[in-house]
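Q: What residues go here?
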């Protein structure tokens, strides 16, 4: 069976898109036993390799797209149980729209391919949309980032690539932040994960370790539950008290909004 290809997109840098790709790839491999490939399709400013301590890869996606290497030569192993394709840190111009064609030959080797897209509204993000079976949008709960999120949603709908959910990142639990219901209403799309701001994410990055493998905390659990939902499975972790979810609606035994939305994702598969 060919791999499902999932694009992780945003149209604003600094929202945690690459960290999300890293965390989901690690969880899918470690917690669910899936064969996973993560692809750095941020062609102008690739940095996925830096998350794994790869500073200057010899062969990259840029070499593949420029016809200087076969795509299999650009696949690297991580110490975290999955593979990835890096970009060139000082890239030359390539045609990003060749991405879908180049990935075809790898689909039979993997269960899931995760694409870390460019945050720019041009052919680079379009390449991810064309290469993906479905998309998830990473945003933060503020008006400025939401406006760019709406642009991402609009573009994806124009390309007819289904957006399966919004990943709400770096949430501080403050009253001034946008509520889940407001974000969903504006984007006409469900929030499928709510990730608290956590300094451990930066600590994990400094140690080139995906956050899902760094510490068994609230953000790691949320990523694991989302990873399961991507493949139609439920992740259950015993003895874990998640106070953050209580703030977002898990009161008196009720499921939080993102829990319900993940169950919807699972039911669709």
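A:
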């Amino acid at each position: 069976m060919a791999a499902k290809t999932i694009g992780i997109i945003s149209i604003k840098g600094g929202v945690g898109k690459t960290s999300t790709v890293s965390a989901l790839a690690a969880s899918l491999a470690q917690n669910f036993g899936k064969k996973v490939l993560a692809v750095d399709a941020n062609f102008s400013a690739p940095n996925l390799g830096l998350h794994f301590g790869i500073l200057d890869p010899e062969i990259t996606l840029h070499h593949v797209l420029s016809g200087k290497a076969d795509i299999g030569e650009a696949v690297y192993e991580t110490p975290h149980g999955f593979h990835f394709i890096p970009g060139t840190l000082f890239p030359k111009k390539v045609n990003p729209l060749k991405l879908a064609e180049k990935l075809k030959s790898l689909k039979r080797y993997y269960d899931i391919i995760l694409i870390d897209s460019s945050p720019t509204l041009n052919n680079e993000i379009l390449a991810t949309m064309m290469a993906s079976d479905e998309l998830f949008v990473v945003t933060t709960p503020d008006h400025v980032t939401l406006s760019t999120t709406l642009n991402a949603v609009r573009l994806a709908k124009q390309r007819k690539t289904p957006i399966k959910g919004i990943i709400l990142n770096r949430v501080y639990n403050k009253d001034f932040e946008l509520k889940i219901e407001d974000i969903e209403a504006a984007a006409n799309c469900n929030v499928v994960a709510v990730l608290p701001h956590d300094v451990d994410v930066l600590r994990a990055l400094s140690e080139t370790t995906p956050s899902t493998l760094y510490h068994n905390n609230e953000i790691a659990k949320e990523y694991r539950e989302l990873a399961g939902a991507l493949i139609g499975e439920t992740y259950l972790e015993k003895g874990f008290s998640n106070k953050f979810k209580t703030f977002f609606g898990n009161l008196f035994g009720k499921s939080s909004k993102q829990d319900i939305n993940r169950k919807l994702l699972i039911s669709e598969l």
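A: Context that may help when evaluating the design: The first strand starts at residue 4 and ends at 9. The domain at 4-268 is CATH 3.40.50.300 (Rossmann fold).
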